[in-house]
Amino acid sequence: MRTAADLDVQGQRVLVRCDLNVPLQDGAITDDGRIRASLPLLQDLVARGARVVVAAHLGRPKGAPDPAYSLAPVAARLGALLGQDVPLAGDVAGPSAQALVEGLRPGQVGLLENVRFEAAETSKDDAERGALADRLAALADLYVDDAFGAVHRRHASVYDVAQRLPHAAGPLVAAEVAVLERLTTDPARPYAVVLGGSKVSDKLAVIEALLPKVDRLLVGGGMCFTFLQAQGHDVGSSLLEADQVQRCAGFLETGKVVLPVDVVAAEAFSADAAHDVVPADAIPADRMGLDIGPRSVRAFTEALQGARTVFWNGPMGVFEMAPYAEGTRGVAEAVASLTGALTVVGGGDSAAAVRALGVDEARFGHISTGGGASLEALEGKSLPGLEALA
After folding, report:
1. Are 389 and 167 in contact (CB under 8 A)?
2. Which residues face 144 on adjacent strands?
3. pLDDT single digits (tens) 324-383
4. Exactly one of 130, 221, 372, 385 is catalytic; which is it?
5. 348 flagged as catalytic
6. Cβ count near 88 (within 10 Å)
7. CA gap 99, 89 in Å, rounded
């Protein structure tokens, strides 16, 4: 793929698709990691005299303007980080966007409103997406995709615009592709994968794809309880996908799956609920597992020793609540402490947990900005956004 560094951008209108889908609470950004990750490209384009037009999405509005999903907080934070005012268009590709672009001078950055305010952005109809892509392309001379978190989507601002403008990959996308190539093409062994999150059904395809390729698969989070049930253990009121128990039993037959040996079990899904550490094979009927326990952290840490390639996606528990954060913290520390290994944090909640729990991001080999895209790549799927950049 051609990269942004290959483009002559002086004075050019450069449409940049960024991943600025940050979490908000009461209108305030609670984790600006994705905004910070976009800075190297934007700063480079500014330094080279480009007129930078940023397109991004936030949340899942229903294809129409919704103040709750406006990019206004993002524009303010991006401006503070860039050290310049970043004006926000009142629409995606309409009169306000056109006026914003016309007013940009070389070295300035402007932000279009949430691209998902346009129903055509996520449409399954090629013509509908194409019509929006035509309007977006009219705003620019060049296109750069640096939104790895969206490259698995066949969306207008990700896939279709790249068909209409000279295009290139941004440094985030280029770095992600390089890491994925290392994970999928003869990874250094032993190769260990740590999977967490709530539902095993969300990760069935990646488990099936990875099991033949990895040496160890460590499973925590809510999804571990379906595996524990497959071992014949009662899991109390823990999250359970009964229709996936048989599939999990098949995975266990490979001998590669490592499961928790103890869990933090609580009376309710609440930080204030009574909770105790119990053996994973003795969860009380009236309790739900909300984190892996300390013996599990030690077991997972031991299972990771000597690994030369590690991919981690998904928290080990409900890390947002302090009583159930230690499992995720322990696994993060175990992965970060490995020396001489390629350690990859697979975006999404895992990356958010690293930042929320205060684990130094620099201790990991790579922190992905796209959990879903990473998983689909590891499944062997073709990613539309990358196809468009080829």
Report:
1. yes
2. 16, 168
3. 999 999 999 999 999 999 999 987 788 889 988 999 999 999 998 888 889 999 988 899
4. 372
5. yes
6. 22
7. 8
